[in-house]
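Annotators were shown the component list below and the corresponding predicted structure, then asked to write short factual statements about the assembly.
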Amino acid sequence: MVVAFDEMGSSGDSCRPGYEVLKRWLESTPPDLLTTRRAEAELLFRRIGITFNVYGDEAGEERLIPFDIIPRILTKKEWAVLARGLEQRVKALNAFLADIYSKGEILRAGHVPEDLIYRNPYYRPEMAGLKLAHDIYVMIAGIDIVRVDPDTFYVLEDNARTPSGVSYMLENREVMMRLFPDLFAEQRIAPVENYPDALLATLKSVAPRSASSDPTVALLTPGPYNSAFYEHSFLADKLGIELVEGRDLLVRDNVVYMRTTEGPKRVDVLYRRLDDDFLDPLTFRPDSALGVPGLMSAYRAGNITLSNAVGTGVADDKAVYSYMPEIVRFYLGEEPLLQNVPTWRCREPDALKYVLDHLPEMVVKEVAGSGGYGMLIGPTADKKTIAEFAAKLAANPDDFIAQPTLALSTSPTFVDSGVAPRHVDLRPFVLTGGDKVRIVPGGLTRVALKAGSLVVNSSQGGGTKDTWVLDA
Amino acid sequence: MLSRTADNLFWLARYVERAENTARILDAANRLAAMPIAYAGESNEWESAVAATGTLGLFKSLGREATGESVVDFLAFSADNPSSIRSCLERARVNARTVRTALTSEMWEAINGAWLGLRDFNRLGDRVRLNAFLTYVKEASLRFDGSAYRTMLRNDAYFFSGLGSFIERADNTARILDVKYHLLLPEQESVGGGLDFFQWSSILRSVSANTAYHWVYRESVKPWLVADLLVLNEQLPRSLSACYGRICEFLDELSLAYGRQGPAQRVARSTRNRLQNATLEDVFQGGLHEFLTEFIGENSRLGQAITDQYLA
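Structure shown to annotators:
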């Protein structure tokens, strides 16, 4: 097993830049105090009710995501590199989406295979030829980043549909500031509290041209049974906008209104946390009770902005992901600042052969999967699982991509046995408005709490920690 | 505000109020059932408790016999009974969770805490446990009301939840009075007898008005004076009159805020006028039962008018 790069530099006396204060503090703090603080943090989370729902888990309808009290730290320099790369990546994503729903130049130039787009389940023919206000498709992107050594950050995946987790970024910081004011006093940590302001400004900046100078924004949720409902209500609250369900909205003459105690009120921008499929039963799934009949015609008429746009799921696709370097070069004429993880597209026969021959070393993912479901992690899987997966892969190679098992960086984490290194990733949130791009310094660090585990998804027992970007 | 949000607040307040009232009714039934058998007479306090919550039909349709155990289970815990204390607190919590952004954190913690605490009361072994449970429910409701009163902005959210509380409270007061009046006066029993005394006291106790009665009337418990207190006395916060005073106040605030009046304001005002102009003689002349039946109908029409005007 490769020894992973540790963000703090856990071996010996060495300490990586940015971690000096934390390391000193960890060394001088008795374990009892850490235990006490962890219990306090859990109590705070429980009291505030920051929970998520686990599908198919009847016993615990609402659960807490485990929170680790040891922050993960990035220096100002590291962040600057990341931020530039993120902005570049999301710019390219937007140009790509605008292109595939209009002229399809990148396809005609042969950089991305056509069938990958037009036969993609997330491609929405309804969007073809539609001119969006400001030409922005992905206003809110969550880009998952992993690190393998001091200088290399990889993009693990792009979340361009309805990325979640930002409420944890904000609440984690809130709890840390309450529990460890001294640590904050000793160094300058860039604030994340302005995220809601940045989000609201972004959403207002993409309002339809017909909207007033102070557009009405609302957040559309599938409702309290959705796994991310806490986040939806949290954000609506912080933004000071209405949290609406489909039944609160109605469409009249291609204009969207919400039902209020004072009568119908026009909505200009809908931050929707509802998948395309459910948005409008007249256009998509007719059985959707969560959506708004007629929403798509109002959208097509240019009377409402949906954020993110319909059909952005194509960019989440892990096969499309593998073309991101080409996509960046094609639209921006620049070299990508953030690298992809080396990826084998199983749809290509040579790649498939290689992957099948090396399964025990690889991570294989469904191209349309998310949340850590339906993947194979070669090094930890038993022979039987590998054989079963090989059969699935051979039967539908188009559905899979494969990547080498990465030695994801670790970060010191407070677990039952004390402070120990655990693998982490990072999801920064990139906001693209009609006026500018906004990125709050930091993001959501997810941590695999089991020793050696590489799976950080909350649905698979991962936890989160606060992410500090040093401001000086 | 969103109609659905207002609707959720309205019903959240109603459920909390209903849970408390049911707890009070159970408390009174429990006390009466503990009376010496000579006083208990023929009347079944447990059945009358179910009747007072307006769920007797449902109870019977489930084929249940009214015993202490079955009634406590039905009114306190049963999932079959949408008005059981547990059902009310669960639905209140679902509503609260849905509109969390419209609640203050104190209100949310009050209702979430009440719901979490329910787990400790899954089954009741004995009367001591029952008392502890009923106290728990009453306190939960007090905490909710108190946090709303002390922390909410005086805006539409506050008015809608206030409307929910008072419409439900008026309904409950009327029902308690009606059912008791009906069940508690067996013909052979003389008004003012021993049974009568305990039973009318129990009504007062179930609405926490025992002391108030003595302050106002300075005499022993008499049925018509109890009716006077619960129907017409504006000083008693649970009386129909007092409830309608608050209801009209909240509706006026709403029409002021929204710059528009509607059927809800008119229905409420006409009911309040009737209550203000009525004398005890009027009430008893036409029959207390008839009076209360009509009131319950009007009160529910007001609920519907509010729904049509604001919540739909």
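Statements collected:
1. Chain B is about 75% helix and 0% strand.
2. The CA atoms of residues 40 and 172 of chain B lie 24 Å apart.
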